[in-house]
Amino acid sequence: MKKPLFLAFIALSLSIISCSNDGNIIPEPEENFFALTVGNSWVYEHCRRENQVTAVYNSVGVIDSIKITGTEIIDGNEFYKYRIRTSGNDTNNPIYRQNRERFQYLRDSTGYLVNQLGDILFSGEDEQEFLASDGATYPVYSRRGEGTETISTLSW
């Protein structure tokens, strides 16, 4: 009599422990949307669309290697120091950055990626339009697109 009661107790305990209601889980907001961490790095290969009809892209040979190398305080705000090395632009094509190393300082300012001049470079909010460039002739507005896009990355 004790054995069936004991087995029923174990079965009931396991069913209670193993039950979960995944429908009520609220995802945590991403705290570091722009991946602002010293040591992070990215490599971007510039490509050109083959033609307007197909979605085929071909490399133009220009590579931007980016690494966050440290932090600096500018006007009381902590900025992340990006080292950007461009290579492969041997013809000095004005569409791409020239071959050289340069530094840029960026920080997260209430969901916007901004540089040390206060220019907004990117928004972390879906569909939040912002002024990306106040050009002399045409102002440029930008926003994140809808949905998710998968990209392929290479490790060097």
Short précis:
This protein has 156 residues and is mainly beta. The chain has one helix at 2-18, and strands at 41-49, 57-74, 77-87, 100-109, 112-115, 120-123, 130-134, 139-142.
Looking at this protein, list some descriptive labels:
156 residues; two-stranded antiparallel ribbon; mainly beta
Describe this entry's structure for a reader.
This protein has a domain at 41-142. The strands form two sheets. A six-stranded antiparallel sheet has the order 1-2-3-4-5-6, with no helix packed on it. The chain is 11% helix and 42% strand. The model has no long low-confidence stretch (mean pLDDT 77). The chain has one helix spanning 2-18, and strands at residues 41-49, 57-74, 77-87, 100-109, 112-115, 120-123, 130-134, 139-142. It has 156 residues and is mainly β. The N and C termini lie far apart (67 Å). It is globular, with a radius of gyration of 25 Å.
SS content category: mainly beta
Please report the total strand number as a whole number. Answer: 8
Number of helices: 1
Largest sheet: 6 strands, antiparallel
Order of helices and strands: HEEEEEEEE
Give the helices and strands, then pairings.
Blueprint: H1 2-18, E1 41-49, E2 57-74, E3 77-87, E4 100-109, E5 112-115, E6 120-123, E7 130-134, E8 139-142
Antiparallel strand pairs: 1-2, 2-3, 3-4, 4-5, 5-6, 7-8
